[in-house]
Write a structure and sequence with these properties.
- The protein is built from 8 helices and 11 strands.
- It is of the alpha/beta class.
- The protein has a single domain, classed as 4-Layer Sandwich (Purple Acid Phosphatase, chain A, domain 2).
- The longest helix has 45 residues, at 178-222.
- It starts with a strand and ends with a strand.
- Residues 3-77 form the Calcineurin-like phosphoesterase domain.
- InterPro entries: Calcineurin-like_PHP, Metallo-depent_PP-like, Pantetheine_PDE.
- One of its GO terms (molecular function) is hydrolase activity.
- It comes from Eutypa lata (strain UCR-EL1) (Grapevine dieback disease fungus).
- Residues 74-93, 210-239 are annotated as: Disordered.
């Protein structure tokens, strides 16, 4: 396998961005691509991105951003009952139903989502494996300062004329609030990451045991000494590294990395403090996110955070 690339916030509802995407004609048949959310608001934006990506890359991953979750009004002339033949507005999908619809579109193109099993990307030459873990956490306004009363975070942002479109278009159905949806998502993907780490560790132990058995059997046939056998075992097992994790989430996992000098109070829509320990806890080597529209790379605790 080849290189692993990542990009976010294509926002294909804008013609400038669709034209820019169409101009990227290179193919990467041995490479992988992570689409870290905010491809657009409608099915056609997802289809455009997924078709473009899967035609050019070996494996494609996607996780949702807030824009994919927007409940956008749609129109259908076939459902119209008006005399002039005008379009009748269809009721848009909301919350979980909108997310599920996005996942269904991704699967039509073979794009891996947070709802699919995490898979291992072997890396260039197969010598640097990593488990790619797309997740979906949303946000819970907890990036507000400590002195902002709970439940007043949006009012606090509004004091500086800051308000996210999410407040009108991103609905949490069937959950009562976005905070409740976020809590449920974090708990679910924590379990999935825990299970992934446990399974990877068990697989590494089993692999090392199998390799040691193989070497022991071969050494008994050739009369290899115990010391030579141990050295061979150590060499063999170190050539098969335990897979690392690459955690992908549209919203930053760490509050400290939310850098918005022009609109600092927008930070309340940028993540949750519940994910602060994920990289260390699950042994991530890389964390990929989007949302901020500011490209940067940070290193925190030996982990690379790319936006």
């Amino acid at each position: 396998m080849g290189k692993l690339y990542a990009i976010a916030d294509l926002h294909l509802g804008y013609k400038f961005n669709t034209d820019a995407l169409a101009a990227l004609r290179d193919t990467h048949r041995d490479d992988g691509l992570i689409l870290a959310g905010d491809l657009g608001e409608r099915d056609e934006h997802l289809r455009l991105a997924f078709a473009w990506a899967t035609e050019r890359f070996k494996t494609v991953w996607w996780c949702p951003g807030n824009h994919e979750l927007y409940s956008m009004p749609d129109y259908s002339s076939s459902s119209s009952t008006s005399e002039d033949g005008g379009g009748k507005k269809k009721e848009p999908l909301r919350g979980q139903a909108k997310y599920d619809a996005c996942v269904a579109v991704a699967r039509e193109y073979g794009v891996l989502t947070p709802e699919d099993p995490f898979v291992t990307w072997e890396g260039e030459g197969g010598g640097d494996p990593a488990i790619v873990c797309p997740v979906f956490t949303l946000y819970d306004y907890s990036f507000a300062p400590e002195d902002v009363p709970k439940g007043k975070e949006v009012d606090w942002a509004a004091e500086k004329d800051i308000c996210a479109t999410d407040e009108a278009l991103l609905h949490p159905d069937p959950y009562p609030t976005r905070q409740a949806w976020c809590e449920a998502l974090v708990e679910r993907f924590e379990r999935k990451l825990e299970d992934t780490v446990t399974a990877a560790a068990a697989a590494a132990v089993a692999n090392n045991r199998d390799e040691k058995t193989k070497i022991t059997t071969e050494s008994s046939r050739t009369g290899t000494s115990e010391k030579e056998e141990e050295e061979a075992t150590a060499t063999e097992t170190t050539t098969k590294p335990k897979p690392k994790l690459i955690i992908v989430n549209h919203w930053p996992l760490l509050e400290r990395l939310v850098y918005l000098p022009a609109i600092p109070r927008f930070r309340i829509w940028c993540g949750t403090r519940r994910t602060a320990d994920w990289a260390a806890r699950f042994g991530a080597a890389v964390v990929v996110s989007g949302h901020l529209h500011i490209r940067r790379t940070d290193w925190v605790g030996g982990v690379r955070y790319g936006m």
